[in-house]
Design brief:
Distance between the termini: 46 Å
Radius of gyration: 15 Å
Order of helices and strands: HEEH
Bound molecules: zinc ion
Structural class: mainly alpha
Number of strands: 2
Shape: globular
């Protein structure tokens, strides 16, 4: 028997799992956001941010899903244009 294990989560080689273009400027002020200092979270983490109403900012701070931390880093949801 040579069974292939299928993960229920998103596969790393999923062709639809293409890189998401980043939003690099605050759409309200037009000012550029600082570059992320932490790795981009998995898609499942983004969904969890929305569900828990608390998100990681792009420097690892905890902010509201549509918030910006005191260092000027937006939440990943803003950065990735999710909300
Ligand atoms: Zn911060």
């Amino acid at each position: 028997m040579n069974q292939i294990q299928h993960s229920p989560s998103l596969a790393a080689d999923d062709p639809e799992d293409a890189p998401v273009p980043h939003v690099t400027h605050d759409p309200d002020t037009g000012l550029p956001w600082p570059d992320p200092t932490v790795p981009e979270p998995e898609f499942v983490s983004l969904a969890r941010f929305l569900f828990e109403a608390a998100a990681d900012a792009t420097d690892g701070c905890l902010v509201e899903p549509d918030g910006i931390c005191r260092h000027g880093h937006p939440s990943w949801l803003l950065r990735l244009g999710v909300i």
